[in-house]
Design brief:
By secondary structure, the chain is an alpha/beta fold. Strands 3-2-1-4-5-6-7 form a seven-stranded parallel β-sheet, with helices on both faces. α2 links the parallel β2 and β3. The longest helix has 26 residues.
Length: 256
């Protein structure tokens, strides 16, 4: 078991299909957690109840992760409550339909960039000063393999994820001297509502999913808890020599 009993971890997007599982795994590892949601609090409340039953402190807040002012206030509140922030994990993502670029509505592009790129920028800005002062910390973002190799039907999302990879690597170089690590976890196809939604989008969606699954050497889509365990490791003291990485967790679909 990865031991996070002395760690305070902020998890943005903990109400998501992956984020909820990430939060549960970190709670199981003993972390004190601060969870954010945007619209629905049902999933984070499930995690909070599980944390309470295990004797773990878990605080829940509604946060507009696309607003730097809201993110800064959230981080200040967490630091005031617990006295420190050891790690921040961004699991936020968009739930937009998969569409070929020619069929996309440009009016939604900026919102996707705000959620899938700028939210991680804002979270990093909100925590890095106190992490630098303490000379320790973990900044972890949930990206996507699409940011490495592209993906049919999600060109703008892939662009945001590619920018996230570049931002994280650059920030990792800046913060390494202070003992603060910055990494991105890049899932491949994962069994979430998003994957189910893509399957339901007619022949094009079904063909995209089937083609992806056929290409995975391990022969299946990922389990969201697999991602949680990788993030728990990166948040732990055992990962102190890993920084600036874009770690694929895709059953071998992407080997780069």
């Amino acid at each position: 078991m990865i031991d996070l009993r002395e760690k305070v971890v902020m998890i943005a997007g903990a109400n998501g299909g992956i984020g909820g599982h990430v939060a549960e795994v970190l709670v199981e590892c003993g972390a004190t957690t601060a969870l954010s949601f945007h619209n629905s609090s049902a999933r984070v409340e499930e995690v909070r109840v599980k944390a309470a039953s295990a004797g773990r402190d878990c605080r829940v807040a509604q946060v507009d992760i696309t607003s730097i002012d809201a993110v800064m206030r959230w981080a200040e509140s967490v630091a005031a409550t617990f006295g420190k922030i050891d790690a921040v994990v961004n699991c936020c993502g968009s739930n937009g339909p998969f569409k070929l670029f020619a069929d996309q509505d440009p009016s939604g592009w900026h919102a996707m960039l705000d959620i899938e790129l700028m939210s991680s920028v804002y979270l990093a800005k909100a925590v890095l000063e106190q992490m630098v002062k303490r000379k320790q910390g973990r900044i972890i973002s949930l990206g996507s393999d699409s940011g490495k190799v592209g993906n049919s039907g999600s060109s703008m999302s892939a662009a945001a994820r590619g920018g996230l990879n570049a931002f994280s690597k650059s920030l990792a170089r800046e913060l390494a001297r202070y003992g603060v690590t910055v990494n991105t976890v890049c899932p491949g196809p994962t069994e979430t509502a998003n994957l189910a939604g893509l399957r339901s989008q007619g022949d094009t969606g079904e063909k995209i999913v089937n083609a992806m699954l056929r290409s995975i050497p391990l022969g299946r889509a990922g389990d969201p808890r697999d991602i949680g365990w990788l993030i728990a490791f990166l948040a732990s003291d055992h990962a102190s020599y890993i920084t600036g990485q874009t770690l694929s967790i895709s059953g071998g679909l992407t080997m780069c």
